[in-house]
Design brief:
- It contains 14 helices and 10 strands.
- The protein is of the alpha/beta class.
- The chain folds into 2 domains: 63 residues, no CATH class; 265 residues, no CATH class.
């Protein structure tokens, strides 16, 4: 709709409202109140058709301006992936893939990735819950991640590799139906009490992650719940025994919420939590670092869509969700 209005503007059909007397200005309306969230700026247009004036208010303007960052990141990382693999290796991968049915998308076929989906059957999204340490990484390096910058020169080699893994996951998220979950307990997960502004950053991020989640499927997460088809139904006592292997405190709380909410992956860099990954697999939860998850996704052909156009044959998911994840960054919401 906004694109149509812009196309009509040169013909004098649309006049963009302005706070000053000048022509062609833009009126930024006051933010709408929302608990814990700084709302996006809005754009207002006056549409005049055959003497009938209609006011069009675009409440998502600020998010739409950020949508292009997703495609930019995907293009940058696709080129980086092909360069890292080399022309010969890419050719071998695609030649092998050509002997199989083209992978479906943007959803996943769970049987195609048994190590990733841990026995689930059917088709649907990939639900990934973020540990707090990944959220902190995202807050610190998210701007560079979305710009497609290399992070190797900013941190140590092992840490940089995991951050680059997160960067590749975000680039795949642009194309595929991956649902990132920020768990509510992450808001207060810290070694010491958070300053009010830092806590507010996390509250805002929680709302933005939730908004991004609602832009896929039926628009209501409850209408497209995580699948447990194919998983064993184990007694509560077994779950408690497995959770006892996770360090007490917020780590255990977050992992328990991830299991009970039906998340498929718990993304973390915490070595103490990673030690419990084997006992959590029977409950359908893969505890993994970004590089671990990257390996599993690559193994089931999920990244073919970034290697050859033949494997990117579905409509792009709603890219407004990119704007929500970018707006989750503290740097995108200056006080």
């Amino acid at each position: 709709m906004a694109a149509l209005l812009r196309a009509l503007a040169p013909a004098g059909v649309v006049r963009r409202l302005s706070t000053d007397a000048g022509w062609g200005g833009l009126r930024i309306l006051p933010p709408l109140p929302h608990p814990g969230v700084i709302m996006a700026n809005m754009e207002a247009y006056e549409l005049n058709v055959k003497g009938v004036k209609i006011l069009y208010v675009d409440t998502t303007a600020d998010y739409r301006r950020l949508e292009g960052q997703g495609v930019h990141l995907a293009q940058e990382m696709s080129a980086r992936l092909r360069a890292a693999l080399g022309k010969e290796q890419v050719g071998l991968i695609l030649a092998d893939a050509a002997r199989r049915p083209v992978p479906e998308g943007p959803h996943f076929v769970y049987e195609a990735g048994p190590k990733l989906f841990l026995g689930r059957r059917g088709r649907g999204p990939l639900y990934v819950a973020w540990d707090t340490n990944l959220l902190v990484d995202y807050f610190e390096f998210g701007s560079r991640i979305w710009q497609g910058d290399s992070i190797a020169d900013a941190v140590g080699q092992d840490y940089a590799a995991e951050l680059e893994g997160l960067q590749f996951l975000l680039s795949l998220w642009v194309f595929r139906d991956i649902r990132f979950l920020m768990l509510p307990d992450s808001i207060d997960d810290a070694k010491k009490k958070l300053l009010p502004e830092r806590r507010q950053d996390r509250i805002r991020a929680f709302h933005e992650f939730t908004s991004a989640l609602r832009l896929l499927g039926w628009g209501d997460p409850e209408a497209d719940p995580p699948s447990r088809e194919g998983l064993l139904i184990l007694p509560e006592s077994e779950l408690q025994r497995a959770l006892a292997r996770v360090p007490a405190g917020f780590d255990r709380k977050l992992v328990e919420v991830a299991v009970r909410s039906g998340a498929y992956v718990f993304l973390t860099r915490d070595e103490r939590v990673l030690k419990a990954k084997d006992v959590l697999r029977p409950f359908g939860l893969l505890v993994a670092t970004p590089l671990d998850l990257l390996e599993e996704l690559f193994g089931c052909g999920a990244f073919h869509c970034m290697l050859g156009p033949r494997y990117l044959h579905w409509p792009m998911p709603d890219q407004q969700r990119v704007g929500h994840l970018v707006k989750a960054l503290p740097s995108s919401n200056p006080s």
